[in-house]
Amino acid sequence: MTRQELEELFYGRRDHERRFTQDFPILPDVWFAYAEVGSKDLDKNGRLSLLLTPHNMSDASRLAQALRARLESTPTAGTKPRILYNESVVLAEFSFEELLRVALPLSDWWRRVIAPAIQPGQRWKKDQILALARKLREYKPGRRFSLGEPKLLKKLMAIIGAIECDRTGTARVSAAKEESPTQAEVNEFARLFDGVATPLKDSAGLLWSVSRNRRAETSVWRSRMAVKADAVAKLFDLKANDICWAMLDTGIDATHPAFARRSDAAANGKQPRPVGGRREFQSRVMKTYDFMRLKELLDPEVKIDSKTKYCALPAAKLRELQDDLQHSLVRGRAIDWDVLEPFLLMPHVKGRGQGKYTVPNDAHGTHVAGILAADWPDAHKHTSLESPLTGICPGIELYDMRVLGEGADEFTIIAALQFIRHLNAHKDLMIIHGVNLSLSVQHDVANFACGRTPICEECERVVASGVVVVTAAGNRGFNKLPTPDPDAIGDYRYISITDPGNAESVITVGSTHRYMPHTYGVSYFSSRGPTGDGRTKPDLVAPGERIDSCSLRGDYETMDGTSMAAPHVSGAAALLMARNRELIGQPKRVKEILCRSATDLGREPRFQGAGMLDILRALQAV
Predict the structure, then answer these.
(1) Per-residue model confidence as pLDDT tens digits over 560-573
(2) What's the distance, Cα to Cα, between the start and end of the chain in Å?
(3) Is residue 239 a contact partner of residue 359, using CB atoms and an 8 Å limit?
(4) CB of 474 closer than 8 Å to CB of 438
(5) Contact 494/606 with Cβ under 8 angstroms?
(6) Among 163, 139, 161, 165, CA closest to 150
(7) Residue 192 and which of 83, 308, 544, 570 are 20 to 30 A apart at CA?
(8) Nearest Cα to 399, choosing from 463, 442, 344?
(9) Beta bridge partners of 197
(10) Is the separation of the CB atoms in 106 and 63 below 8 Å?
(11) How far apart are CA 570 and CA 577, in angstroms?
(12) How big is the CA angle at 132 (ends 382 and 72), to the nearest 5 degrees?
């Protein structure tokens, strides 16, 4: 197994899905070392020198004792592995099998994720593991799973099984041909953990993390607290249900309970409307537009019939619009959004056939929208979350504009931004007050001045029209370097802000730790400035590491990236306008207030911008 294949198991295969942290107490560099067959870092018994950090409710000595006690019942190759400890960490030299059978069950992660599948003090049998794998394959997102956390269990089986298949020379079917984890991977996982005992209560959860003992040489629920959204909710009686934000992303699952309309629907005149004889479902996702089919709609060579995928209008009106659209395309007239809108609009009607609602294929947009707008007080009853799932600005209305996916490009995003200006220009009051762009387009330095690419220019026009535009800084702050030295695997880089984050008037957001920003500063992956023409960017940083938010079909998941940081700032801007109505239509003033009230993290301004988002201070500053 190559390092790239293993990284894809950890972080995802596509760029906008890619994670930058991972979910296990065993850190990636440890997995990579064991996965490299014949690695010079392993001794003759296949052991690796590791540092084990105890849980903050435990200490190194207790952890070392527990490790030694468990080791007594685990067969070892050659001499017994070394276990030492100092005041803060434990040094252990473990083989892959010893790490998994001895150390991993002592972790707090095992207590939360694996232990529900085994009775305390009992041993995990191979037939139980195989039965669990079958249940995982049958599991449907959104359903409660009583035997641990299904996504993490599947990923753990895939990673451990793949590594062990390669280590033992066992043939395995590609995950592209068989659902991951493959049966061969499950079999190897079951063999490794057969007979492993779950720790008793007094020794459960002692371990926090496992990392490499590196050679020395001379030379993101908590994120709401971090940005003080919880304090704002207690101090201010804010209703943001008349503030609306457009989310340009992979799409929002409007059927998710976190976006359900919970009150004031009748008073606001937002009852479901009939569409094609059926009624739309209730959702704070006001409308869904599929811009991924825009190029098809604008192509006069594409048959008219194929352009009615979602359109549920009466036949006579549909034919009229089709004729107008075809006529405009053939004549080369300017885009008429009033004609195009019915073909882009996806009705919120469940069912089958033409005109039905389709849940997006990718959870990224739903996750981003949840950070901004989730209001799911009983999430803990339906998922493994231990608390409600609440966004920065619960109650806000959303417009879902699907611009990311296979074939996504700058053209499509620019068109969606133009459509937002069209919607606002044709009403007495603004419909959309802000835009969140948790996406990036790599800046083309050879052809455009920085901040002057087509997408940046369009963002400037949107801001000039009175709309707040918030965008992710990008995830290019860390660069892997091709080098003959195997120990030098990468470096940090500056001037790495992506478009449209280079636009002057947008609020460009970098990432920091979800609840300890002063300790950890700017995330290693977060793109940093200055811009190519010397301006300070990002403007702010906000939590972007390990953020829990909504996933598809009533589920949740954890993601990382500046994509997750941006909606924290969108929520802050929405709250600011909800409290101070005169700021609606004043995006530059909103940006100024958010930046001026930010908390300095003591980092380089070209890394942190004005500093960490502080919503409470922003509201008190006006």
Answers:
(1) 999 999 999 999 99
(2) 57
(3) no
(4) no
(5) yes
(6) 139
(7) 83
(8) 344
(9) 123
(10) yes
(11) 11
(12) 115
Residue pointed to by tokens 């295969």: 13
Burial of 446 (0-12, 13-18, 19+ CB in 10 A): exposed
Q: What is the DSSP string of 15-78?
A: GGG--SS-SSSB-HHHHHHHHSTT-TTS-TTS-EEEEEEEPTTS-HHHHHHHHHHHHTTS--SS
Cis peptide before 486 (omega within 30 of 0): no
At 328 the three-state DSSP class reads helix
DSSP 612: B
Nearest to 62 by CA among 201, 202, 212: 202
φ, ψ at 399 (rounded to 5°):
-115, 125
The whole-angstrom separation of Cα 123 and Cα 106 is 14
Most confident of 83-87, 182-186, 305-309: 182-186
The residue among 364, 298, 279 whose CA lies nearest residue 16 is 364
Q: Measure the CA–CA gap between 437 and 283, rounded to whole angstroms.
A: 21
Residue partners of 178: CB distance under 8 A and separation at least 6 = none
Q: Are 33 and 42 in contact (CB under 8 A)?
A: yes
Q: Which tokens in the block code for residue 612?
A: 């960490």
- The distance of Cα 408 from the centroid of its chain, to the nearest Å, equals 18
Strand partners, 375: 390
d(CA 289, CA 73): 59
Alpha-carbon distances of 420 from 141, 297, 444, 597, rounded to whole Å: 33, 18, 25, 29
CA separation, residue 377 to residues 148, 258, 380 (Å): 21, 8, 8
Alpha helical stretches, state H, 305-352: 315-331, 337-344
For the chain, the C-alpha Rg in angstroms (whole number) is 26
Q: Of 334, 357, 287, 343, whose CA–CA distance to 313 is shortest?
A: 343
Could you tell me the residue ranges of all domains in the chain?
A: 3-212, 224-295+352-620
Residue ranges of the alpha helices (H) in 374-409? 379-382
> For residues 42, 45, 48 and 53, what is the CA-based torsion angle, rounded to 10 degrees?
180
Which 8-state DSSP code applies to residue 376? E
| φ, ψ at 521 (rounded to 5°) | 65, -145
| Number of CB atoms found within 10 A of residue 51's CB | 17
pLDDT digits (tens, 9 = 90+) for 503-545: 999 999 999 998 899 999 999 999 998 998 999 999 999 999 9
Amino acid sitting at position 567: P
Q: How does pLDDT run across 441-500, given as a tens digit for each residue?
A: 887 675 678 998 889 999 999 999 999 999 999 988 887 666 555 555 667 788 899 999
The CATH code belonging to domain 224-295+352-620 is 3.40.50.200
Dihedrals φ, ψ of 195, to 5°?
A: 85, 5
Q: Beta-carbon neighbour count of residue 279 at 10 Å?
A: 14
3-state SS assignment for residue 249: strand
Strands 468-472, 434-437: pairing is: parallel
Beta strand segments in 354-438, E: 375-376, 389-390, 397-402, 434-437
| Contact (Cβ atoms closer than 8 angstroms) between residue 6 and residue 161 | no
- Longest CA span, the chain: 83
Residue type at 32 in one-letter notation: F
* Residues pairing with 403 in the sheet: none
d(CA 99, CA 25): 11
